Amino acid sequence: MLRPGLVVLTGNTVQDNTGSQGFTGYGGGIFTSDVTVTLSGNVLAANTASKGKDGYGGGFYAESGVLTLRDNTIENNVASTAGLGDGGGLSFGYVTYDVRAAATLTGNTVRGNTGSTAAANTSGWRSGAGGLDLWLADGTISGNTFTGNTGATSQPGYCGGVAIYAGVHAAAYFTGNLVQDNTAGAAAAGGGGGGLCASGNAVVDGNRILDNRAATAGGGSGGGVMLGIGLRGASLGGPTTFSGNTVRGNLAGGAGDGQGGGLYVSRNTMNPTEVFTVTHNLIADNTASQSGAGSGGGIYLGPSYMARLDANTILGNTASKNAAMTGLGGGLSIASSDEFSVTNSVIARNRAAQGSGVWLGKTGNQSEPVTWGRFLHTTIADNQVGAGVWLESPLYEARWSTRMPAARRCWSPPRATTASATRC
What CATH number does the domain located at 5-423 have? Predict the structure, then answer.
């Protein structure tokens, strides 16, 4: 345990340690509180935060302070083997909004870590963040590799590689990282956010998010990325920007239903500051569900306010690979999103039974708003199986100005209709 001061750790191996045997544990390998600390060239391996109850930060936990991690290897750590587990590799948090961690991570390898291996937890919170949990802390995370991490093995798991929960008080920048082959939930209970979760005042830019899974044995949401609803299941608001990323080859639901093979976007508050901007990304070859019903092979845009999707390429995604199950929106599925816009984008070569390119409708939750928004200067072409665009009532209004051939354009009625669907 390191208390206030200045500490430098270079070239060490911190291995096979346990934070707590019977109680909640913080930091299996290293715990710091209000320390200015630099870790460089270390190996943090096979540590466990708690073997008796909940655990946070299997390899390293910091509740505040100024943290610099450079060229370290954080591998095979576990936050908890007995309950809730968050931050299998690393967990950085806060004491109050004014006393919080500020972390800079560059060139680190974070691999094979797990949030929780317990069958269940009684905390009422979610287990996850297999690699890194950044909780209401400032962070600049660039040029790192997050591979082979797992949120939870036997209970619902979230945010297999990284969880960023910034709110409006902190600011997080996640740029130029590789997030690959991570799993949020490995059990039949499912999970969400296979590679990355981001909520609040966060910028996610220029990353490669490849071959991640939200759930392998159950239903899942956000095979590659989950924006908004994440590890905490709640948001404190703040704008989230997702730009210039490559999201490819991810899977939301392995043996169950899935939403958002590449990207899942949904708010869980009515906070007007919680606005999502998704721009200049490549969303390709993702799958919402392998064997169940799927919605949004590339992107699922759920309940949200003023989401902006601009200049994205949504290519070769699949809603469901099981022809006997319902597939909605091979490229893009929009459900109960208020004042969204899709502009200057290409949605092509995607597959779904209903809306092979785009599906628009409402969620089954009657308290959610009907879908309202617009498409401008967007190409929707060469999508397969179902109609290119499928409008499912009730819709309020969807306005189109696209580069689609005239025969394939479609306008919904200006008010909710009793018709089951409008195809185009």
Answer: 2.160.20
